């Protein structure tokens, strides 16, 4: 049982996948809020490594277990439709600017994750939910667009108790990826503990779209990425 001070009026739930964006989002949320951290595994290829990265980040910040909730949603793996959850579908590699929805899109994933976050936030009286969505992904991922989060906040408003007041916050939504890296370095986020690769759990492949975006972002920001690549 998670024992959280429900009288804390400055409590925020932060979705932390273990990725770079969620790592920076968590660090930004901690500048303004007391945080409760939610990690959801959904059967993705790098589920084990992402969880380990999430745990390493929580240890870095000394987050107590009473403020950590780690869950599994196996339904997304069973539904499939994505190279992240179905090993029969190859992971996209190559041009990060290629048009169209990539195979790494997990159908309606963020809605599932946010639904869990809203349920927990309402239970523990948190007023904010932070998620590391980036608008730069919007041509690829429909649930990373600002209008999606505007619509979702309306759903939260009508779908929770009248006394509930929860807002989904996307602090990175309008930032360039190089600026996200710069922001993370500026506020001391442990980017070296985060994981972005879509394909491997040991060393990052360096070839999938997520690895390529990460490498380009660090290069543009003028920093060296300290995770291991094959």
Describe the structure.
There is one protein chain. The chain is an alpha/beta fold and 230 residues long. It has one domain (11-221): HUPs (Rossmann fold, 3-Layer(aba) Sandwich). Helices cover 36% and strands 10% of the residues. The chain contains seven helices and five strands. It has helices at residues 20-30, 47-60, 75-79, 109-124, 146-159, 177-186, 209-221, and strands at residues 11-15, 34-41, 68-72, 128-130, 167-169. The chain has a five-stranded parallel sheet, sandwiched between helices. Strand 4 (128-130), helix 5 (146-159) and strand 5 form a beta-alpha-beta unit. Helix 1 crosses helix 6 (177-186) and helix 6 packs across helix 7 (209-221). The longest helix has 16 residues, at 109-124. The model has no long low-confidence stretch (mean pLDDT 94).
Compile the SSE list and pairings.
Elements: E1 11-15, H1 20-30, E2 34-41, H2 47-60, E3 68-72, H3 75-79, H4 109-124, E4 128-130, H5 146-159, E5 167-169, H6 177-186, H7 209-221
Parallel strand pairs: 1-2, 1-4, 2-3, 4-5
Helix pairs in contact: 1-6, 6-7
Write a short abstract of this structure.
The chain has 230 residues and is of the alpha/beta class. The protein has helices spanning 20-30, 47-60, 75-79, 109-124, 146-159, 177-186, 209-221, and strands at 11-15, 34-41, 68-72, 128-130, 167-169.
Characteristic key phrases:
single chain, 230 residues, alpha/beta, Rossmann fold, five-stranded parallel β-sheet, 5 strands
| Mean pLDDT rating | 94
Question: What fraction of residues sit in β-strands?
Answer: 5-15%
Taking the alpha carbons of the first and last residues, their distance comes to 40 Å
- CATH H-tier superfamily: HUPs
CATH C-level class is: Alpha Beta
Number of strands: 5
């Amino acid at each position: 049982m998670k024992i959280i001070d429900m009288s804390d009026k400055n409590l925020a739930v932060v979705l932390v996948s273990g990725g770079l964006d969620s790592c920076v989002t968590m660090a930004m949320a901690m500048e303004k809020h007391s945080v409760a951290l939610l990690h959801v595994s959904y059967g993705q290829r790098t589920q084990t490594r992402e969880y380990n990265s999430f745990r390493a980040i929580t240890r870095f910040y000394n987050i107590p277990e009473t403020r950590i909730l780690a869950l599994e949603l196996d339904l997304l793996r069973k539904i499939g439709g994505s190279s992240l959850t179905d090993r029969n579908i190859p992971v996209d590699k190559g041009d990060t600017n290629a048009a169209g929805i990539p195979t790494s899109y997990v159908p309606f994933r963020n809605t599932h994750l946010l639904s869990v976050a809203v349920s927990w936030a309402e239970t523990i009286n948190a007023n904010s939910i932070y998620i590391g969505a980036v608008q730069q992904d919007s041509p690829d991922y429909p649930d990373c667009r600002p209008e999606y989060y505007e619509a979702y906040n309306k759903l939260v408003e009508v779908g929770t108790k009248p006394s509930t007041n929860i807002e989904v916050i996307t602090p990175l939504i309008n930032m360039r990826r190089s600026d996200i890296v710069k922001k993370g370095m500026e506020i001391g986020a442990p980017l070296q503990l985060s994981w972005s690769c879509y394909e491997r759990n040991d060393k990052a492949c360096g070839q999938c779209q997520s690895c390529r975006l990460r490498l380009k972002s660090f290069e543009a920001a003028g920093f060296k990425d300290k995770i291991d690549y094959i």
